[in-house]
Amino acid sequence: MVKRPFIRKQKKKKHGTTFWDNEYKNSDHLQLSTEHSEDLEKFTRWIIRRKRGDILGVGQSALDVGCGNGRNLIFLSNTFSMQGVGYDISAEAINQATLASRDLPLTYTARSIAGLLEVSDNSQSLVLDMMTSHFLNEKERLALRDEIHRVLMPGGFLFMKTFLADGDLHTRRLLREFPGKEKYTYIHPVIGVPEYVYTEEVLTEFLAEKFIIHKVYRSHKHVLKGKARKRRTVSIYVEKDFH
Asked: Taking every annotated instance into account, which residue ranges of this chain make up the domain Methyltransferase (predicted)?
């Protein structure tokens, strides 16, 4: 009898929506927090200092395009008594968000953020795009920007956080080793889907076509002794003109 060599069974890779559903159930690759984003809290403090707390007040609504488990909408509702609408591609994330928001005026839908947003014109005082729209292609990113402009009320704000290509060694490696079809796009080696990375110049020009740009915050400590550390990110505060 010929003895067969031992072959370790490989786990089947999960891509796209399946990946995110699995992560929200088991967190095999990412650390998904239930605590709200410190960057979002920083944004709300800035808004209040500028005496624009009206966008965070009772009766105002926030749309989160990539809400995950609802943590940031829950923060806005608990802290400022806001209403909210959340979209996420993961049904598991939406289930978790719904359970965590039982007593809050928040609604969630499992859907892609590509295409028309299911909210009325000028109905949202705040839109969140936090580490989400970089999964869209160029045409979809353009359409989402225009949809966000449509649904924001005059004087409303978009708070956006995304990866930053400038000076990021991880981005440089991913673009080189896993190139996508679009410039500044790579195929994520774990999730298996295209991911786009902005330069600051491209991002600000892209948003300035529709919005007033107020603040840009870039993360630091991304390189130590020539070696890559955490991914570099950028947060940007932009306003829909009153006119």
From this structure: 63-156
Residues of the chain with pLDDT under 50: 1-12
Crossing angle of helices 71-80 and 38-49, in 10° steps, is 30
Distance separating alpha carbons of residues 136 and 182, to the nearest angstrom: 11
Sign of CA dihedral 13, 16, 18, 23: positive
- What pLDDT score was predicted for residue 17? 76
Distances (CA, A) of 55 to 12, 64, 153, 154: 45, 15, 9, 10
Give the C-alpha distances (Å, rounded to integers) separating 101 from 17, 76, 152, 172. 22, 12, 23, 39
pLDDT score recorded for residue 5: 45
Q: Which domains does the chain have, with CATH numbers?
A: 16-23+34-163+198-221 (3.40.50.150)
DSSP string, 19-73: HHHHHHHH-SS----SSPPHHHHHHHHHHHHTT-GGGGSTT-EEEEET-TTSHHH
Distance CA 15, CA 242 (A): 42
The per-residue pLDDT for range 30-83, each reduced to its tens digit, is 566 778 999 999 999 999 999 999 999 999 999 999 999 999 999 999 999 999
Three-class secondary structure assignment of 31-42? CCCCCCCHHHHH
In 10 A of CB 58, how many CB atoms?
8
- pTM for this entry: 0.87
